[in-house]
Design goal:
Distance between the termini: 178 Å
Helix content: 10-25%
Number of strands: 36
Largest sheet: 5 strands, antiparallel
Oligomer: single chain
Strand content: 35-45%
Length: 532
C-alpha cells in the first residue's frame, strides 16, 4: 500500500456508502416498464391470436359440418333439391346436440351463427341456372355457408360452399328435367321473388320463385318422350314490358328428360309494377283550377312515352276535373305531356316526367290567363257571372268584377248579377285566348209597356220571386224594378223573365199584371200591352 501511495494512486476510503443516483434509478424503472409493456402486449396479442385461431378453427368445422349435413340429405328424395332452394337463406338450421333449430351453436362458450343460402346454379359457368345456356345439361344447387361469432373485430367470417347436382339415380327419377326462367325488372336488374308457373302439355304443372339473381328453376316430369311446356308469370299488380299484359307467358318448347331448359332464361321476361300519371290543372297563379270549369272546357293533354323501354304509349287524355288520372298501366320509364289549351305558336315545351314502378307521378299543367273587360251592362249591375259555354248559371257559379277579370282560355257565357236580380242572361260564346285582353260590349235589353193609363206605379220582379197568383214577397218588392220610363218608351232592364205588378205610392204590391211573366230576351227590345 505504501508503494501504491508513493506512485500517486489514491484509493477510496474504507467504509464508503456511495451507489446509484436517483436519476439512474428513475431511468432504470422507465426502461423496465417499457420492456414490461412490450412483453405484455406481445403476450396479449399472442393470446388474442390464439383465441381467434381457435374461433376460426371452430367456425371452419361448423361450416364443413353444415355442408356435410346438406350433402347427406340432398339426395334423400326427388324434391330435396327444390325444397332446399325454396328455403333460400336459413340461420342455424342444424343445431348441435341439445340445441334447437334457429339458436346459436355454442362451442367452448362461444356462440356461433351459421347462415346457409341455397340457389340454383348451372353446372358450367354463369351467375345462375338461367345463364348456363346449352352448356348446362342439368341444374345444380350452390350451397354457401357463412359462420360468424361475437367480437370478431377485423377477422373475416368463415365461408364454405359446395355445388351439388341432383343426378339421375341419386334422388331424381330418370325422367326428371328442369326449366330455368329468368325475370328482370324495368331497370334491367334481377327481379327476385316473382312467381313462375311452368305448365306442360302432359298436365305436369309446377311453380317456383325467382331467386336473388332473378332466376327460377322448376323441376319437371316430362315423361320418357318429353313434353311441350310454357312458362307463365303469376304475380298480380305487375306487367310485361313487351306484351303489356299482367300475366305474360312464353313457350319453352319440347323439354326432354334429363335436360335443363333455359329458353326462358337466356331471353328473360321483363316484368315490373306499372306506374300511373295524375294530371293536375292549375290557373295562371298556380292555384288549383275549378274542376267543373276544367271539365266543361273539354281540355285534353297528350301523354306520350319518350323512354326507350316499354310498349308505345301516345294518347290524348281528356281532363275531367282539377285532377285526372291516366287510367292506363304505364311501363316505368320517361314520359312527356303536351298541353297547349290556348293553341299558342310555338307551343309550350312538353312537361317531362319519370314514372316509377308502382308509383303515381303528378304532372302539373298550368293554364295561361285570358283577360276580359265588360263595356256596359244592365241597370244596377254588381258582378258578372262567368260560366263555360252552354253551362247553367247558379249560385255556385263564379262571380267577377265587370271592369276586368281573368279566365281560362276557352269559350264562355256571361251573366249578370245586380240589385234585385241574379243570373240575367248576357253575351254568349265569348272566345278568349291566352294573353288576350278582350272587351265585351253588353247589348242593351229594353222593355216598353203600352195600353194603360192606370195612375199606380208599375213595377217588376224576377219571375222566380212570384209563387202563384199572389204578390211577390215583401223582400222582393224592396228591390223591384220601377218601370215608370217603360210606360212612355223603351226602358233598359236586365234580360230575363219578369212579373209585372201594380203598386201604390209606397211601393206595396196591389195586384199582378197579366196572368204570367213577361220575357225580355238579351239584346232585344220587347213591347208589352197591358189592360187599362
Amino acid at each position: 500500500m505504501a508503494a501504491e501511495q508513493r506512485r500517486g494512486v489514491r484509493l477510496p476510503a474504507r467504509g464508503d456508502d456511495s451507489g446509484f443516483s436517483l436519476i439512474e434509478v428513475v431511468v432504470a424503472m422507465v426502461l423496465f416498464a417499457g420492456f414490461a409493456a412490450a412483453l405484455l402486449t406481445l403476450l396479449l396479442a399472442s393470446q388474442a391470436m390464439g383465441v381467434s385461431n381457435r374461433n376460426r378453427i371452430a367456425a371452419t368445422n361448423l361450416a364443413a359440418r353444415e355442408i356435410d349435413t346438406v350433402r347427406s340429405t340432398f339426395f334423400a328424395s326427388t324434391t330435396a333439391a327444390q325444397d332446399l332452394v325454396n328455403q333460400g337463406a336459413a340461420t342455424n338450421p342444424d343445431p348441435l346436440a341439445g340445441g334447437t333449430a334457429g339458436s346459436a351453436l355454442v362451442v367452448d362458450g362461444t356462440a356461433y351463427t351459421v347462415v346457409r343460402t341455397s340457389v340454383w346454379n348451372p353446372v358450367v359457368g354463369g351467375a345462375s341456372a338461367c345463364d348456363g345456356g346449352s352448356l348446362s345439361a342439368n341444374a345444380a344447387v350452390l350451397v354457401t355457408v357463412t359462420v360468424t361469432w361475437p367480437n370478431m373485430g377485423s377477422v373475416e367470417p368463415v365461408t364454405n360452399s359446395a355445388l351439388m347436382s341432383p343426378g339421375k339415380g341419386k334422388g331424381l327419377s330418370g325422367t326428371a328435367a328442369f326449366a330455368a326462367v329468368k325475370v328482370i325488372d324495368s331497370a334491367g336488374a334481377p327481379n327476385p321473388g316473382r312467381g313462375v308457373k311452368v305448365v306442360g302439355a302432359n298436365g305436369d304443372t309446377r311453380s317456383g320463385l325467382t331467386d336473388d339473381a332473378g332466376c327460377a328453376v322448376v323441376q319437371l316430369a316430362p315423361g320418357t318422350a318429353g313434353s311441350q311446356y310454357r312458362a307463365v308469370l303469376t304475380d298480380t299488380g305487375y306487367m310485361d314490358v313487351l306484351a303489356g299484359v299482367t300475366n305474360p307467358e312464353r313457350a319453352l318448347g319440347l323439354v326432354l328428360p334429363g335436360s335443363l331448359n333455359t329458353s326462358a332464361g337466356s331471353t328473360p321476361f321483363t316484368y315490373d309494377k306499372p306506374g300511373h300519371i295524375v294530371l293536375t290543372v292549375v290557373d295562371a297563379n298556380g292555384d288549383p283550377a275549378d274542376g267543373a270549369t276544367v271539365a266543361a272546357l273539354g281540355l285534353t293533354a297528350q301523354v306520350r312515352k319518350t323512354g326507350p323501354a316499354g310498349p308505345n304509349f301516345d294518347q290524348p287524355i281528356a281532363l275531367t276535373g282539377t285532377s285526372t288520372t291516366v287510367a292506363a298501366n304505364l311501363w316505368p320509364t320517361t314520359y312527356a305531356v303536351d298541353f297547349n289549351p290556348a293553341g299558342l305558336s310555338p307551343a309550350p315545351a312538353p312537361v317531362a316526367t319519370n314514372v316509377n314502378p308502382g308509383a303515381t307521378t303528378t304532372v302539373t299543367l298550368q293554364l295561361p290567363a285570358a283577360k276580359v273587360q265588360v263595356n256596359g251592362g244592365p241597370p244596377a249591375l254588381t258582378s258578372v257571372v262567368v260560366v263555360p259555354a252552354g253551362a247553367a248559371c247558379d249560385a255556385t257559379s263564379r262571380r267577377v268584377n265587370p271592369t276586368g277579370f281573368s279566365v281560362l282560355p276557352g269559350t264562355w257565357d256571361l251573366y249578370a248579377d245586380g240589385t234585385g236580380y241574379t243570373c240575367s242572361p248576357g253575351p254568349t260564346a265569348i272566345k278568349v285566348a291566352a294573353g288576350d285582353v278582350q272587351t265585351v260590349t253588353w247589348a242593351s235589353t229594353t222593355l216598353a209597356v203600352t195600353g194603360s193609363s192606370d195612375p199606380r206605379v208599375l213595377r217588376a220582379v224576377p219571375a222566380a220571386a212570384v209563387t202563384g197568383p199572389a204578390c211577390p214577397a215583401s223582400a222582393a218588392q224592396t228591390t223591384a224594378l220601377v218601370l215608370t220610363d217603360a210606360r212612355t218608351g223603351p226602358q233598359q232592364i236586365p234580360a230575363g223573365s219578369w212579373y209585372l205588378y201594380w203598386a201604390n205610392a209606397a211601393g206595396v204590391c196591389q195586384s199582378l199584371v197579366g196572368s204570367g211573366p213577361v220575357g225580355a230576351p238579351y239584346g232585344q227590345a220587347t213591347t208589352v200591352t197591358v189592360t187599362p
